[in-house]
Amino acid sequence: MTQHLPILAIITLFIGAFIVALIKEKNEVLRNTVVLIATFMSFIFTLMMYKPIIGEGNIITYWMGNWEPVQNWAIGIGLEVDQLSLFFGLFISLSIVLSALYSFKYIEKETGKDKYYVLFLMMSASVMGFIFTGDLFNMYVMIEIMTFASVALTAFRNNKPEAVEAGFKYIAIGSIGSSLILLATVIIYAQFHTLNLAQIAGELHNNYTITTLFALALMVVGYAVKVFAVPTHFVAPDAYMTAPSSISMLFSGIVNKAAVYGILRVLYVVYQSMNLPSVQFMLIFWGTVTMFIGVTMALAQHDFKRLLAFHSISQIGYVITGIGLATALGITGGLYHALNHTLFKGLLFLCAGAVYYATGTTDLDKLGGLAKRMPQTALIFIIGAFSISGIPPFNGFVSKWIIYQASYEAGYAPVTIIALIVSVMTLASFIKVAQSAFFGQLPKEFKNVEEVPLSMRVPMWIMAILCIVGGIFPSSFTKYLITPAANAVMNSAKYVEVMMGPEFASKFYNNLGNAPVIDYKLAGYWQPIAWLILFGILLLAFTLVALLGGFNPKHFSYSDEEDAKYDVFYSGESAEFSHVGGSDLFWGLKYQFRHYFDLMHKIHNGVVNDYALSVVLTAAVVLLYVFTFVR
How many domains does the chain have? Predict the structure, then answer.
């Protein structure tokens, strides 16, 4: 039975999509039941792999059609689940269940709900298939299913022009990313005549050529598009903003995590290139730029979901930086933050969905005082905001602190400083959201809003509680979940050995170290008091400046455009109430750095051709870098 668990976790979701397509709108209760059973069973099958894989240290393999390797040559498609795969599988499958439960009430007034759930299950199944497969081409197939399902879900509310436009941008830019991955896969297959990850790893060992380096660059950029790393991130703000919040949660929580997993598998297992300083620097630099630009753009937003979209980009920068350090502590921090990002960012998107469900808008300039009418949602939002901002004792503090330490110990002190500044700016932007949406005066049109239904609050509370538990008990999280996954990343010989045999793996793979179990000292709670004092002073100073500056009654306008669709940083609307509006809090900051924001405004111009050109130029730069520095 254990051997069949990976395929069961995947196929259950695909079968659920097929059944929902047959039911259509005939029986809503039956359809919702099928969705809940399919997602829950997938989670259970994934959970059943915990003991043999993480508890006992085994790796589960499954050859489709029983096509096992012949004379050490892989022909069929193999599934292989190790500690890293299961780590991603556990929190991804849990997110799918929570999103499904949230969706039942959230989209009950929408049309085309049967199509929504078919696409929902298809996207979920493809992500599970992606992380459990051991075949390079199957990874491409699954990520392509995921992309097209994501495009359709982005445009789900197709009565809104912005949703259709966002879907078009997603398919245009996403297809470029998919094409890069496919081309790299074709090149590797032409070179080695196999698609099995373990076998390719053996063939590539100490065998870098111009061809394989070309494929490496294409693969990295292709997955960067899927993970929404700067400057391939332009699809994310529109897609996250227009998709239903239950889907935005999955975009942030599982879709980009699949891409993170792809980067890990390609660089650490297939190419074994993370021992090269040039590759480490590439990821660290890329992650640092991503986290900084993401948070500065978030500061400038006045739509709740669009702000969260840029924060999702920023937080994924921490993950890329952590895994780019290629140290035991860095990888642990990167994986911990990947888990935490799924929890706190998914939670925040669900909060935005609750606000939209109750008020019909996520425009921060139109909201205010909702804590009076939606106290549970306000409290849950505060938990999520403190978590993403890295405030102790919430989970974001632990993973960020690990990345601070790891980057400093690896000799990247400037990265540590930037990461600290980004955390401060993250907190500042969520002060803006809290003041604009939940505090201040309640607009008259929202005086009768009510708390969202229980089926929407339960997933939010589960994720909020996990955010708290992940911060209070870091040693349990790392010991029983993250440390085994980090060890699987650093010591991948077993992944190759189980799939292809011991003699195949014995000739290579040096042990990169063992990941630590994070105790309270490593988690930052008992570090030298000076660090905490410095961090606290920075947070307090920025908070006070933001709050005091936000109550200036004057409003300035630096744009004459009536259509503010892409006007993401200037705003001159007059305030209706005395509370701080979404466009008011950082007007001084935005004015002082107006030249930077002018540049960002020009770059985020909404023109698909320019976004596509950005991806192509990124590929060209990465190709040049790889050919020049990677040996």
Answer: 1
